[in-house]
# Entry
Amino acid sequence: MDRKKIVVLGTGGTIAGTAASASDHLGYTAAQLGVVQLVAAVPALAAGPWELLTEQLAQVDSKDMDFDIWARLVRRVSHHLAQADVQGMVITHGTDTLEETAWFLQALLGPDKPVVLTCAMRPATALAPDGPQNLLDAVAVASHPGACGVLAVCAGVVHGAREVQKVHTYRLDAFSSGDAGPLAYVENGGLRLLRNWPAAPAGQAQTAMKNIANLGEKRRWPRVDIVLSHAGADGAVVRALVADGVRGLVVAGTGNGSLHHALESALLQAQAAGVKVVRATRCLEGRVLSSPDDALADSQGLSPVKARISLLLELLAASDAPA
Ligand code: SIN
# Structure
């Protein structure tokens, strides 16, 4: 019987990081080992009921993730998923922007096969690295019958791309799905599913895909920034961004998306001048509950960094609309 293929794409991160000392969890350099080495370090991967294909897409500390890498990544992911004999994919990634890449891929592709991002909080050279187990768990999820959508696997927990957020600076279990809760747990290679796999988002995905193809890797993407409401916020940063040609702004408001009045007034002026403005919350849990007379759109439950990605895609899609 043909074994299903799982493609493992490497992008760098702490999972591929190395340090001079096995006890050093901080003074390491991310993105040093290739994806072939990561797979080779987990003997159980060679014994599984799958055929693994590896590809090194990038080698970065994910704090430096950029549009060029995202553009290449979305093309390679859609290429591999289109192959009938590919059952799913795993992407090794740094933890710092993992949730952004996860949402970018989910919002664009909404795949009906699993695309599982995984990572590590300790470098590969640590006394007890967490990357090898995370990688094994991610491959188990990618090969699970019925799994679909963009997922994140870390410390035995499976999160959906929409909810996943890094919430801790150094614990191994650094991610949370907030009040939605995890999708599943990986238990000794098996899966305990807690809720449904993520559904494909409706909307502009196809147009945005076309735009990404058109943009190429070196062209400029629309500029979308995030601003924060806080005590004493005065809106100067909004005015500076508008003067600099920003196309979209996400504001991380307090509580239920409330804004300092001075910041709000600058944002309303920006909106009146044609800048797209979206209101999210700086709270880690919950979502902005809107009311009909809100002057600024809310982020539909997305965190500020994910709302920024959706706004980027919306602007990309609009740039392809007929005049
Ligand atoms: C990174 O995000 O690439 C570095 C930090 C990590 O992976 O934990």
